[in-house]
Queue: 2 jobs
Job 1
Amino acid sequence: MIALLALILSLPAAAAPSADVEARVQELLSKMTLEEKLGQLQQLDGRADGKASPELFDLARTGRLGAVLGVLGSSEINALQRAALENSRLKIPILFGFDVIHGYRTIFPIPLALASSWDPGEVESAARVSAREAEATGLRWMFSPMVDIARDPRWGRVAEGAGEDPYLGSAMARAWVRGYQGDDPSQPGRVAACAKHWVGYGAAEGGRDYGTTEISERTLREIYFPPFKAAVDAGALTLMSAFNDLDGVPSTANRFTLTDVLRGEWKFSGFVVSDYNAVHELINHGVAQDGAQAAARALTAGVDMEMVSRDYAQNLPELVRAGAVPLSAVDEAVRRILRVKFELGLFERPYADPAREDAELLSAASRAAARRAAERSLVLLQNDGGVLPLSKSLKTVAVIGPLAVDRAALLGSWSGEGRPADAASVADAVRAALPGARVIASTGGAIGSLSDADIQSASEAARAADAAIVVLGESADMSGEASARSSLDLPGRQLELARAAAAAGKPVVAVALNGRPLTLAPLLSTVPAVLEAWQPGTEGAAAVAAALFGDANPGGHLTMTFPRSTGQIPIYYDHKNGGRPASESDHFTSKYIDGPWTPQFPFGWGLSYTTFTLSGLSVTPAVAAPGATAIVRVEVSNDGARAGDAVVQLYLRRRFAEVTRPVAELKGFSRVGLKSGESRVVEFALGPAELGFLGADMKFSEPPGDYEITVGTSSVGGLTARLTVGGRR
Ligand code: NOJ
């Protein structure tokens, strides 16, 4: 009986009949004036110091502020909330949002790094901890996850996503949403997710942020939509419309994506917020002559809430009264926003508890989760001669490069309320890992101002040491929003530092801190080992040191291709074959005359301090009936001397179809921890969802056909087998 009661009490509120929410929404809506309705559609920004301006308080008191962003800390959030709840006529709580992208105060590795863990559980944990910290301050809405597929590393925002693959991206999208919202987003510690940027934003031409995009409907549906669909299916309460234009229609005025697909096909019932000022920017796009046209286009296309620009509030009263925009469109947007506020339990629990804020921020548990995530995100790119891990009995170690002491670089872009001072630098972490050793730090100034003297000093430090660790890459502001690069080389004279250190003739290893794939060829031929640490967060330096000295074994793998040169971009593993695929022996094939067509490191790449062997690949049944599910099994063995994690990856290739198909498509993965000498059988299921694709009619189908299945530890190489669906053709 008690158990039954406990079960009933623990049932998530989301399972409660939504008729109740609908009734409450309807009742409230019926009491609202047009101005109050438009107030719900308005989101405004706090000041740079995280405070709300007097104007925001005014709007809150008069019921004309639905949501804010960037008002921070429980006392300021509660004060603004109180203004709304104690003064406004209908006492509708304000929804507080913020860019919590990879942590609020405790910063996790950037999302691209978290994806490199190939462990959705790690992403879910990062989201859960971030939500707990943020929600304790009164924030109830994260502008995350960014689920844009990115195939162009010049685009600075690749740091914020899961990389180039829709299957992996979908798994990570689900994990982010689960981590933020849980089963019941109204519970303490839970928040609303916002899948962004709907849609195609990552395909900006030339990698220039905010740029135009040119994407076929097939590519939209097969590559760019899936992570959004996964987020919606996982229950994401909100989406953000993107800055780009798509086939001539800006994403923020795009009825096809915002309404036909999102509402019609996917039955999404949450709300869509525009990106920052994106409604007003419809004027710059050239599809609206003024704010009134911008408001009318965005709202009627399906953008429910306007972020920062005020075209809705300023123009819709007149447009609605004149009959140019139907009131029903405003009502529908209000309904969607109120629904989310009810589902978040905002009416029942509108305020933050300052005691929880103190307890949650930067707690030992948050730090421990960030530490583990950082360790699991590390990718060992190269380790010639097994130079890594370094011995812990080294007497003198040189730590070289400006990034060795740059703690902001560890946090990366969009680092919430994270503080560099909360993080140890890589140099500090090396000192802590080798308490008995002498650590010579030769760090120079900033990346952009390395001098001859700095390079000389690096050379001297390496000569005086038993081994050198060169820390290089990008500073925090070199990736992220509006930080596109036209070169992906190591910025400044960092390569010279590595060369100077290597010339000393001692073992030299490099640690890369960066927010995107880089062109590393000159570094790779200078130093034997490169550990890709990304921007690993508040606890990242300790994770790096653990990997450098063998207390941790790197097990992450790339989720974005590393090109050899920027001229190869876009380069991604799931490309089409074409009629003349690249071939060394035939000139008239798809390649370059001035360099290789292959990547520096393919999607899925990652080494370990141990070695793994795959064997015994089987597909059962090898000939499957249409609609059936085939099981793929493979044994993975750790035949090296250390424990380590293998990332087993399954790729499909459809041999023949009426439309061209990619040369490989990821359709299964598993990160497996194995002790030395241990083996395990990994199983993948291939059913219609994995085998199907869009036919020539753009309808999803799984016509009979042959598939080549490759299972490996990267998108290149592995064991292969055949699967035939529906009898041999
Ligand atoms: C613009 C960015 O594109 C978006 O990702 C972010 O959430 C908003 N600004 C709010 O800061």
Job 2
Amino acid sequence: MAGRMKDPFGRILNYVRISVTDRCNLRCVYCMPPEGVPWIPHDEIMSYESILFLCGVLQDLGVQKVRFTGGEPFVRKDFVPFLGEVRKNFPSLKIALTTNGTYLERWAEELAALRLESVNISLDTLDPGKFHSVTRGGDLEDVLQGVEALRKTGGVPMKMNMVVMREYNLEEVPSLTEFAREKGILLRFIEFMPLDREIWALPSFVPGEEILSLLPEGESWKLPPGEEGTADACGPAREYRSDRRKQTVGIISAVSDHFCARCNRLRITSRGLVRPCLFSEFGISILEGLRKKDRERVAREILAAAEAKPDRGRTGIPPRGEKRDDEKGQSCRMSRIGG
Ligand code: SAM
Ligand code: SF4
């Protein structure tokens, strides 16, 4: 079974994002409804044991990197000890995390010992009031202390993700760029993506080009010659470098620009649905195969999802009345897919 997983367009899939929960302690306006997501019974989500088994199958299929995400991964009980198990069982697997950063202070030391490839922290504003309203209740200080604690360990490469929305934080593009430079963290700007009709609002959308034009010392930012960008983000990021500022930033333009030709990933929800594309309307369930520890079956199902990858994502707004449904009638919110 060992080998390289390819899709019908010849793209090698060596990166899988696994959502460990769709619950979250925050309710970001661009991601979740105010009431949160419906409660999923414990036996309907992948157990840690199943995810460990899954990592083995993925490695056999040629996957080199997994990213654990959510919801907020740290709200799931024993998440960090689980990461320790993944590290112990798969020493050569690259492990990355995406988190809202609110629990990092508590876990910084433990994380530093895990040889993580990167921790991506979502931070959209440096204004405590705005942070509180956009996350519907979050405390900015928790994230700032988390960033500082992780930085102090010196053992974990960090990135920062800023979802840019016109009415909310567009004017903070320069200040967050400066913040990232001071802290020595790679900042990536993410275009607001239309995954959920109830949340999506076109006037909030800011295209990557416009974000780029707002960077401090705008004309100094250049795409390295021949560089198409990296494939290491929510969608592949184009990385711009300003030698004058001695800084690099990424722009993830999943909506205004298509990076699908370089897509190298699959996504697996906490319910064990393998989604061929972030914008797919369906997923293939591996839950039963995982429960039975049926390696061949799980591999077959993952390969079927790889086979179903579209050549490019359907990033349009779902037409009125149509939802991206895949999980018992629940629309496909980012909090389910994990970004
Ligand atoms: N809770 C973690 C966090 O916030 O980083 C991990 C899960 S979150 C769904 C993963 C990423 O998706 C975050 O960087 C978040 O900002 C981004 N995200 C959520 N909804 C989005 C949307 N509608 N458009 C663009 N990015 C979005
Ligand atoms: Fe939670 Fe992350 Fe979604 Fe915000 S973006 S509601 S922190 S899952």
